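Worked example 4.2. Below are the chains of a multi-component assembly; read each line carefully before continuing.
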Amino acid sequence: MRTLLFLLQKEFKQIFRDPSILRIIFIIPIIQLLILPWAADYEIKNIQLTVVDQDHSAYSRQLISKITSTGYFRLANYTNAYPQALKDVENGDADLILQIPVAFERQLVKENEATLFLAMNAIDGVKANLGSAYLRSIIQDFNREVRMEWIQLPRLNPETQIDITTSNWFNPLMNYKYFMVPGILVLLLTMVGVNLTSINIVKEKEIGTIEQINVTPIKKIHFILGKLIPFWLLGMLVLTIGLGIARLAYGIVPAGSVLTIYAFAALFLLAVLGLGLLVSTYAHTQQQAMLVTFFIMMIFILLSGLYTSIDSMPTWAKWITRLNPVTYFIEVMRMVVLKGSGLIDIKKHLLIMLGFAVVLNSWAIMNYRKRS
Amino acid sequence: MAAVSVENIIMSYGKKKQKINALSDISFSVAAGELFGIIGPDGAGKTSLFRILTTLLLADSGQASVNGFDVVKDMKQIRKRIGYMPGRFSLYQDLTVEENLHFFATIFQTSFSENYNLIKDIYVQIEPFKNRRAGQLSGGMKQKLALCCALIHRPEVLFLDEPTTGVDAVSRKEFWDMLQGLKKQGISILVSTPYMDEANICDRVALLQKGKILSIDSPAGVIAHFKNPLVAVKAKQMLALLEKIKTLDFVQDAYPFGEFHHVVLQNEKAVPSLEQELEAADLGHITMHKVQANIEDCFIQLMKN
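Applying the procedure described above to all two chains together yields the following structure tokens:
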């Protein structure tokens, strides 16, 4: 016990004497948390639209002004030749082309029917999809207005119409920051945990201090715990700072108890720190450790359900997300912050995380050899 | 009981095709309280041997024990009883001198004050810098600190891997004086060095080359083994002189040695022959005298045979 205490004392001294560690632990996450949520936005804005207007009628002008006034679209070009519009797309100046054919207005008035052509630049898939969906609903809206203008509606509408009213549960205004900020906080916590621990033991290998430690009667578990506990405490501190920023900068007050978040974070940190330790018991240089954690982080981020919905992934990818501790924490964070879930609701998550922590840490302890 | 006993240790690195034998069938033993030196050039296998004895490395085959404890089975017992100072400075550079000492004392379940008398003579030399970080010490100071840390738990056997490499001549002298002091305290010491002149200070020395022990003897014994006549020669043109000497068939070996060349002759009769030959060659101001072989001459002879 006394040995562990002195190990911890030594570890903390080293951490606080290294200004770069403190910067990495505190300043970088704070800056990222203040910047990233503003950029990681699901809403698509500023879609570049090229209009090929071959009609030049009052209706076509009305439609164009309706589209541009929504704020989602920017009129990149206004032309009357389709090839020219296509050139805009080729040059990357336009995301969408709306072609209003000749006699659009006349057809609409005479035949009660008219066609429009929509072409999209599918290089940016998300933008193309959402952009055309937005545009379609605007055009539908326009359609209804035109009809209102032309047809004197009888008292009772002869056509059946379905009117949809939506209600967003747990996040009434669909404020994307409410679910992005907690998710980004989880990622920052993971990065701090995995990176710092993975580099730490490797550093002792590189400098050679591990040789001196290995010839002492120190117990393996003491050595590993001596590495684990300081970074666990730092991780909890980063979480506290992150939750503070979420509250102050984004006004996010968890609907559930903060203690639930801490309880889960305690287990989660054990798991990711164990992973960091595991990497460092295999790596021989800090470079190796950095590269391996870099790739692991990449998988953790992309297969965590933070940016893309897990339900829409193929089955094999879903299995990988189940092996990703970050997935569970992001889920728990959103459940607690938005839905107000309690410990009982996240019981399954807690158990799985406990499993991760036990497996990763025992693997790390087993793989750390005092003799080669 | 021997402080260290090594029997038929074999250690090799690398895969089948590029197998390098670091130690091939090494056996020796170090008596309790002995200052035993392992002399050998870089790459001789000194560090591998030390790592096996300090339980950091598993040998391919063979047995070794430290104070009667087997290096494989009783490694926990050994770790409590030995002090190891690796060739590379491996203390925490971001901790101060004092913190390093206290840290290593605690992980050996002892305290700095408990064994202070053992390291006192060494510690007083670094005490003025006790609040300085270890990384900012000079090379000699680092060695002294490392020795203190290796001694802080009063080990029974001390392993020093090239403790004087990269240390100036004065510090080297001081360091060996310290080892003599520790020997008096009853600590068995196994020390390796690439410097042959340091061999004289050891009780016994083993000459290690390419993983093989060439000789084990006391320094006096090693010198007594040297039977050939040895002559030191000097002339104005030293390089031409050496080349000339090497062409003579009664010369066994010749090599530069300080400001002279040492010439090993095959027998006593060759001494006047050498004199004649050199006088015949015009190399200017030839001086020549017979010398007593020292330990370096012996090792050079052993290595070349």
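Take a moment to check your reading of the output against the notes. The mean pLDDT of chain A is 87. The first strand of chain A starts at residue 47 and ends at 53.
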